[in-house]
Amino acid sequence: MIELPFYGYRKISEVLKEVIEVTKKQIRRVMNKYGLKGLRRKKKTSICKERHKKYPYLLRGYEIRFPNQVWSTDITYIKVGGRYLYMTVIVDVHSRKVLSWRISNSMEKEFCISALEEALDNIYIERFWKTLKYEDIKFKYYVEVSDLKEGVANFIRFYNHNRFHQSLEYKTPDEVYYEAFSKRKELVA
């Protein structure tokens, strides 16, 4: 689990279930015995400034049952080699699958407007930023833009294909995303 230092006992037990018969309780006991913990971000890392406008949560009470029913997007900045780059991601809210992403060295008008026009909800994408920064960028010191792009591409492949989500019953975004299409096809047929 060295390559996944951010995995806690729940996710480690899910990974190990594929190889050996193990419970979450057993993994937690072993981790506690040896003082092991999954790496976590500090609490309250995104503290709002009073002067920043707060937008209402538009999806309250709205049932999201299928992929592509709701997408979320946002922009964040990443420090690379002493300068800041900007990244935008579009996420399917139902499956948490990263559908599209871009990195830019400036926040050109078109880059920002495009991201804002597609933004429907910000909660899931903010969670993705934290995941990306604390499970990849924090552990790798990207100096070159090309290194950052390659690293992010690798992380997003891992995130979509291999990273379990507790909120998705320990399935990956790809599993939930494509499983929903199979179910939808059966309903239509």
Q: Shape, please?
A: globular
Structural class: alpha+beta
Number of strands: 3
The averaged pLDDT comes out at: 81
Beta-strand residue percentage: 5-15%
**What's the number of structural domains?**
2
SSE succession: HHEEEHHHH
Query: Biggest sheet, open or closed, and with what strands and sense?
Result: 3 strands, antiparallel
Describe this structure in words.
- The protein folds into 2 domains: 1-40, no CATH class; 71-188.
- The chain is built from 6 helices and 3 strands.
- Strands 1-2-3 form a 3-stranded antiparallel β-sheet, with helices on both faces.
- By secondary structure, the chain is α+β, with helices and mostly antiparallel strands.
- The chain has helices at 9-16, 24-33, 109-118, 123-135, 145-161, 173-188, and strands spanning 71-80, 83-92, 98-104.
Describe this structure in a few short sentences.
The chain has helices at 9-16, 24-33, 109-118, 123-135, 145-161, 173-188, and strands spanning 71-80, 83-92, 98-104. The protein has 189 residues and is of the alpha+beta class.
Main attributes?
6 helices, alpha+beta, single chain, 2 domains, 189 residues, 14% strand, 3-stranded antiparallel sheet, globular
List the helices and strands and how they pair.
Blueprint: H1 9-16, H2 24-33, E1 71-80, E2 83-92, E3 98-104, H3 109-118, H4 123-135, H5 145-161, H6 173-188
